[in-house]
Specification:
It contains 13 helices and 18 strands. With about 425 residues, it is of the alpha+beta class. Strands 1-11-12-13-16-10-9-4 form an eight-stranded mixed beta sheet. It has a three-stranded antiparallel beta sheet with strand order 5-7-6.
């Protein structure tokens, strides 16, 4: 959420940011309500001062034995008017708060302006696409032949997008989770086990609502949301807290299953593991000082990239354009891994800086050593990594002509086997 005072003082900049993100501009409504709210506050404060003066006069008159009935009647009228103003003020504030939640974060000046994925800017490549010495198969053909992922039975039990991992497939999934968590630990992240459901305040805090309700599964009876990412519970871990500056940066790594409805997704891009409703992911979350947040973003990106390099998976890093970045981010990188059997890039991580946008919603602050006053932290997060497409790319890259899968050496301590099949 943007600061109301900032919006008031930087209207053109905010409008430009909204336009760059192809979002709806409701700034005029916000400014009208803000003006109304401030006028009501001023009127209310004036009447409350008058009420205090009248109350003092009533006391003096009563002590003097004078008739105070007229001035008491006047005081009652003031009380009634104050109550009316308070009611109108509460209504205006509620509407204003709701409108402020619809204003997207402002893109950082370094973010390229654009409206489609084609406007995203490649900034880094690592690894070489494999030479095709034999016809490379997509992962769903290999996993079906090897019996390590069962999409058919998953659809029978839960529906499309909820696969079973079987035998060595299940071990590989668990190995990657442990490998990602262990690697995060070596880079200073504290492991945290998080709930996989959150309440409405938590979903609002990270910006899932009122923006992405259609993408989440909701437990209506208990008003709980199944998390689309561990970003939601982990970032809310410090909601309504004041951190000490010396503690920053605070870095957490969390494994959770994630749940996404993926409403409107269809076609060839959802084959196999490419797009699931339930999937495993290790998330990296940071709480940092505003002065260092963009350096921390680059470090976060490198933490995620390091995992792909250890696995030997060719990838590219994209700086996302304004229109393809998302509602809450000020700057975002996507890491895309090369899926050799499909001959396409698949996103496996997004690394984002939200500046104070989420922290303001959640009221997460740190005590500044310069001012001694509480100020909003900056929050960042990134996938480290999302497993389904990593598994897909790994299977497609390390397939053999015989249809087996070679397991990367860094995973051998976790799998206890060197190949699948």
């Amino acid at each position: 959420m943007l600061d109301l005072k900032f919006i008031r003082e930087h209207v053109d900049l905010v409008r430009k940011g909204i336009a760059a993100k192809n979002d709806v501009d409701r700034i005029d409504e916000i400014l009208v309500l803000d003006e109304r709210r401030r006028a009501l506050i001023q009127d209310g404060e004036g009447l409350k001062a008058k009420k205090n003066d009248v109350s003092a006069k009533v006391g003096i008159m009563k002590k003097a034995g004078e008739d105070a009935s007229a001035i008491i009647a006047e005081m009652n009228e003031v009380k009634t008017r104050i109550q009316t103003i308070d009611d109108e003020l509460g209504e205006a504030q509620t509407k204003l708060d709701a409108l402020l939640l619809t204003v997207p974060n402002i893109p950082h000046p370094s973010v390229p302006v654009g409206s489609t994925p084609e406007d995203n800017q490649p900034v880094f490549h690592w690894g070489e696409k494999p030479a095709e010495d034999f016809p490379l198969k997509p992962h769903w053909e290999l996993t079906d032949a090897l019996g390590i992922i069962d999409f058919t039975r998953g659809a029978k039990v839960a529906g499309a997008g909820f696969p079973f991992y079987v035998g060595q497939g299940a071990v590989l999934e668990r190995a990657l989770i442990n490998f990602f968590l262990d690697q995060a630990g070596t880079r200073g992240y504290k492991e945290i086990g998080a709930p996989i459901v959150v309440n409405e305040d938590s979903a609002r805090g990270t910006g899932q609502i009122p923006d992405k309700e259609d993408l989440m599964y909701i437990c209506d009876r208990d008003q709980l949301y199944m998390i689309p990412t561990a970003e939601v519970p982990v970032t809310n871990f410090h909601r309504k807290e004041i951190l000490e500056e010396k503690e920053l940066p605070i870095k957490y790594a969390a494994y959770t299953p994630c749940f996404r409805r993926e409403a409107g997704s269809y076609g060839k891009d959802v084959r196999g593991l490419n797009r699931l409703h339930q999937f495993d992911k290790v998330e990296l979350v940071k709480f940092v000082s505003p002065a260092t947040s963009y350096d921390e973003l680059e470090a976060l990106r490198q933490d995620a990239e390091h995992l792909l390099q250890l696995l030997g998976l060719p990838y590219r890093t994209l700086l996302m354009c304004t229109g393809d970045m998302g509602f809450t981010q000020s700057k975002k990188y996507d890491l895309e891994v090369w899926a050799a059997g499909q001959q396409k890039w698949l996103e496996v991580s997004s690394c984002s800086n939200f500046e104070a946008f989420q922290a303001r919603r959640m009221n997460i602050k740190y005590r500044s050593s310069d001012t001694g006053k509480p100020e909003f932290v900056h929050t960042l997060n990134g996938s480290g990594l999302a497993l389904p497409r990593v598994v897909a790319a790994l299977i497609e890259l390390y397939q053999t002509p015989e249809g087996k899968i070679i397991v990367p050496k860094v995973l051998h301590p976790y799998t206890r086997f060197t190949h699948i099949g």
